[in-house]
């Protein structure tokens, strides 16, 4: 689940903190990097659990209505389609998600007000109304409902972002990327797999784990050389006048360009220019792009850069 985009972002954040905190313990910083990545995987599981929490809240509302002293006919005979959603029923018994909930002791129980608010927005939506009125009772239809609801009510939800940030500072920048993996998971669910439906793994493979470890260490251990290259290509600027985040982004980019011959230079450049646009100054994208382009061209000219 943790892709290289997220790995790059986390490395830049940890390297930035490494220098800002005056730390000289590389092993401790590497441990912090992998802990930070593991928290992103926790968020993935936690957001899947939100789907179950909303459905359980809907059941709770139905039970409360039936328990009134004088329930209406409609309250006694509610439409159960939403709470009996086949995709959610499968998700609720998923072995991996159940194990996560048990081991991490996480639930949405302490945030029922948020769950309530989300449920009320859902039932007021056309997506919900069309689903409840539809005669389609297929698993595929139930799964598609939650793909639509997630995109509509979980994506770009400022209240949810604030709630998650209060729970973990590590989740501050993770949600946008993690959301895409939750949607991918919903799409991949297959009824025939039952409780054994695999969730996305924390890392795609050992190669990505090694990519994270190697990139992080090269970024710091070869920092003097990378900063020399940056300084040589920003001669109209003193290095201490360049935004510190820009230096970190370029340092990490150079570590990747020089250490991973199988990654095309254009891929590395595009990734770090985009990161600079988001995490540094408004002009950082063009500045980082121009500086790295100059360094790459010089390295090629000097025969110091080879790519497969």
From TrEMBL:
This is Transcription antitermination factor NusB. Residues 204-296 form the NusB/RsmB/TIM44 domain. Belongs to the NusB family. It comes from Candidatus Bacteroides avicola. GO terms for molecular function: RNA binding. Transmembrane segments: none annotated. Pfam families: NusB. The keyword RNA-binding applies. The gene is nusB. It comes from the Bacteria. One of its GO terms (cellular component) is cytosol. PANTHER family: ANTITERMINATION NUSB DOMAIN-CONTAINING PROTEIN, N UTILIZATION SUBSTANCE PROTEIN B-RELATED. Keywords: RNA-binding, Transcription, Transcription antitermination, Transcription regulation. GO terms for biological process: DNA-templated transcription termination; transcription antitermination.
């Amino acid at each position: 689940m943790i892709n290289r985009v997220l790995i790059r972002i986390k490395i830049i954040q940890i390297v930035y903190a490494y220098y800002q905190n005056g730390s000289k313990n590389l092993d401790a910083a590497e441990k912090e990097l992998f802990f930070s990545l593991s928290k992103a995987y926790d968020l993935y599981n936690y957001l899947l659990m939100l789907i179950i929490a909303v459905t359980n809240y809907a059941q709770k509302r139905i039970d409360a209505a039936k328990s009134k002293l004088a329930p209406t006919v409609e309250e006694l005979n509610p439409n159960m389609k939403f709470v009996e959603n086949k995709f959610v029923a499968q998700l609720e018994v998923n072995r991996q998600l159940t194990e996560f909930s048990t081991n991490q002791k996480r639930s949405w129980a302490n945030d029922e007000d948020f769950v309530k608010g989300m449920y009320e927005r859902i039932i007021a939506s056309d997506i919900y109304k069309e689903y409840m009125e539809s005669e389609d009772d297929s698993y595929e239809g139930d799964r598609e409902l939650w793909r639509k609801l997630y995109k509509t009510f979980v994506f770009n939800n400022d209240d949810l972002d604030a709630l998650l940030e209060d729970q973990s500072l590590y989740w501050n920048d993770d949600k946008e990327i993690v959301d895409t993996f939750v949607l991918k998971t919903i799409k991949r669910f297959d009824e025939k797999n039952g409780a054994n439906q695999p969730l996305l793994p924390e890392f795609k493979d050992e190669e990505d784990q090694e990519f994270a470890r190697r990139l992080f260490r090269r970024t710091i251990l070869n920092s003097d050389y990378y900063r020399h290259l940056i300084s040589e290509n920003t001669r109209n600027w003193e290095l201490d006048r360049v935004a510190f985040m820009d230096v970190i982004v370029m340092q990490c980019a150079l570590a990747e360009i020089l250490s991973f011959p199988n990654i095309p230079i254009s891929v590395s450049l595009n990734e770090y220019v985009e990161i600079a646009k988001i995490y540094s100054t408004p002009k950082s994208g063009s500045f980082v792009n121009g500086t790295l382009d100059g360094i790459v061209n010089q390295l090629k000219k000097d025969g110091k850069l080879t790519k497969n």
